[in-house]
Design brief:
elongated, single chain, 0% strand
Length: 85
């Protein structure tokens, strides 16, 4: 059971976290934004940033509608020249 002091401490931590994230402009990308970022990087042949975006997409949104395309794009040794991302 939380005490009043414990609740106030938890609230203070959440408030400070919110202020810090807002102050630094941290906004988590949506699944469509992550996919678009990965796709753009992939088409520009910037494979490392593409893989990073696709990995974050799959980690944060494991049931995304983009799972198949993101997974395929990250597979090494595949011929991606005909990939329609």
């Amino acid at each position: 059971m939380l005490t009043r002091k414990g609740l106030l401490k938890a609230f203070a931590i959440l408030a400070v976290t919110g202020i810090v994230l807002t102050a630094f402009g941290q906004k988590l990308a949506t699944e469509d934004e992550l996919y678009a970022k990965g796709r753009k990087s992939f088409l520009e042949k910037s494979y490392r940033p593409a893989a990073t975006a696709f990995e974050e997409l799959l980690k944060r949104f494991p049931n995304t509608k983009h799972t198949r395309k993101a997974t395929f794009a990250m597979e090494p040794g595949q011929n991606h020249s005909e990939l329609c991302l």
